[in-house]
Amino acid sequence: MSKFLSEEWASEATDALNSHEGFKNAIGAADLGIQFNTTDAPDGEVDYYLQTSGGNATLALGELEGADVTVKQSYDTAAAIAKGELNTQTAFMTGKLKVSGNLAKLMMHQSAIQQWSAAVSDMEVEF
After folding, report:
1. Fold that domain 2-113 belongs to in CATH
2. Contact at 8 Å (CB) between 19 and 27?
3. CA distances from 98 to 12, 70, 71, 95 (A)
C-alpha cells in the first residue's frame, strides 16, 4: 500500500495508467502535460504532474516545465477525487479545483481524464 502523493504512489499510478487499455485508448499519442499543485497536505504542499507523449504516461512528483495546464487543489479535494468520492467536473464547477493554462487542450482529452480514475481505482492507497 502506497501513501497518497508519495514517490511510490506516483510510480504505481504510472504503471496503472500505462497498463490500462481505456486510458491508453483515450490518450492515444497525445502530448499533454498537467501540473498539480496541492496545498494543505499532511507534509505540506505537494506538486506532481502527469505527462503523456507517444502513448506513454508518467505521473511524478515535482514541477513539469512547460505544462499545458496547472491545477491548484487542496489535499482534501485531491484525496476525494482519488478515492472516487468527488468527480473532477464537480470539483471544478464548485471551485474546489482552480485550472489555468490551455483549457481547450485539457477539454480535448476529457475522456482520458475520466479513464485515469478507472485506471487507478484498484490501487491500494493510504490517505
Report:
1. Nonspecific Lipid-transfer Protein; Chain A (3.30.1050)
2. no
3. 26, 8, 6, 6
Burial class (CB in 10 A: 0-12, 13-18, 19+), 61: middle
Q: Which ranges in the chain belong to alpha helices (H)?
A: 7-18, 21-27, 75-83, 88-93, 103-108, 110-120
Amino acid found at 111: S
If you ran DSSP here, which 8-state letter would residue 67 be given? -
Element of type H or E holding 99: strand 97-101
What digits encode the pLDDT tens for the residues 36-68? 999 999 999 999 999 999 999 999 999 999 999
C-alpha–C-alpha distance, residues 84 and 104, integer Å: 25
> How is residue 67 written as a grid cell?
505544462
The structure's pTM equals 0.94
Unique residue bearing C-alpha cell 506513454: 56
